[in-house]
Task: structure prediction
Amino acid sequence: MRDILTRVLATGDHYANEMRLAPTEVHNAERIVDCRVSPLAIDEACLLVEMTDVTRRSQISRENALLIQHGAGRQMIRQLAHEIKNPLGGIRGAAQLLERQLPNDELREYTNVVISETDRLASLVDTLLGPGGPSNKQPVNVHELLEYVVRIISAEDQRSITIRRDYDPGLPSIALDRDQIVQAFLNLVRNAAAALDGQGTLTLRSRATTNFTIGNKRHRVIASIEIEDDGPGIPKDMQDSVFYPLVTSRPEGTGLGLPAAQELLSRHGGLIEFDSRPGRTVFYVRIPLEQGEGRSDG
Result:
């Protein structure tokens, strides 16, 4: 800041830019500030400094971009899934008819491969289309859902992963579709565990946040569930597209986990955001406490 003031004094040019302020004891999250410095000649004053906290405005812009990305991705995968699914039944049926005409088991091995691979593709398409039907929302404790997911992850081979909890005990029950939210949490926690590659710390955190805007709706209070890992972070060149389907940095990944989780949260009026840098990646799951309520910001 001192360099900026000195430069404006020396050149007489105006300065305008955004600054990122690191977390402090007062504010535990990074903030974005719009800073403007202008030369001035009133009495003994020589500079006018204007600083505006635009953190929330930037977050809203990013949330809207995520919603647009999710909408485009959802339309694309549904069109793709339907185009794939239509001929699969015909292929499987033809392979079964052919299998009955083949004279020996050796030849039937080929039709078995066709049938098996067709079934695998059908399963993948079902994943792309996501669970159908309306959500079955019942009051649930999100911490209980997180602990259920932890038990599933712990049963898998995660070696030296340390799991820490930082729950807000005052968070009330929320009317959610248990199966859908468990699946969303599971996708996010599995991704975090995979990023740690068997060693590191995974932190689960919950908070109640007031006057929070999701898309064009402002909610009086939401639940913010944070899934944090201290892994290498999401590559910079992928951060703008991680919620698009089939985008993944892992050879064994399908690139469907994040888009599916975003879709399941959207059915609850929620949104998933993230912040990532080497050593700290956090996915924020935003869920309105009062499902179906909210008012337009317009």
Remarks:
- The helical segments are 2-11, 55-101, 105-129, 142-155, 178-196, 257-266.
